[in-house]
Write a structure and sequence with these properties.
Blueprint: H1 9-12, H2 15-71, E1 76-79, E2 83-87, E3 92-95, E4 106-111, E5 119-122, E6 125-128, E7 140-145, E8 158-162, E9 165-173, E10 184-190, E11 200-206, H3 211-224, E12 226-227
Antiparallel strand pairs: 1-2, 2-12, 3-4, 4-7, 5-6, 7-11, 8-9, 9-10, 10-11
Amino acid sequence: MKGRRQAPLDQAAGPGHSRRLKRGVERYKKRGMRADLTPRRLVICAAFLLALVVVTSGCGGGIEAQATAKKAQPPVEYSNSFLSFSHPAAWKAYPFRWSGELHFRPMVYLSTQTVQDPCSTNGNTTSCGFPVGQLRAGGVLVTWNASNPPASGLGPGSRIKVDGHQARRVDTKGGTCRSIGADRSVDVLIQTTPLPSPLTEMTACLRGPGLAREQKNLDALLASTKFSSQ
């Protein structure tokens, strides 16, 4: 008997089996490609996220640096013929100007907002109040006055010294500054000449937020105050 010729392997099982075998090979190749691409994709995504974090940090750092620089502005010096002191740059100085006769004459106002004329005249009567109608949130108003009537004492309050002069300080929640929306009033009377004599007065109106910070600024202002020789 003549031996039968053996069919090639890919034909031995018939055309259907050959097609299934090819599909299996193709699926294996695709799985291999996916397995090969997945780590690459992960690396690319990680690199992209890292770059995004770096850029974001750089932008945030710039904003924070600008905010810090703004907060860290050096104090501004103020002086007149009677006294001098340093104050935060955000507290603008407004020397008091009034052509009429007054029983008191403030030397200067400091405020975080624009001040207005504090006095008004009705007939022969002139009345004065605060130069700010309403303090804004975080607002500050400071007044310096050296034209009070002669006094024989400093009155009650914490005893302190300002430029070596005896003084008293009263801190009040609300207090006299409540009328303009302040959360805290600070009143300091300073004996700059032997009693009885007019006392130099500094009044500060503070509104939150940021009361602790502004009180520190006020303390620094008092510590820097110097009076001219009289």
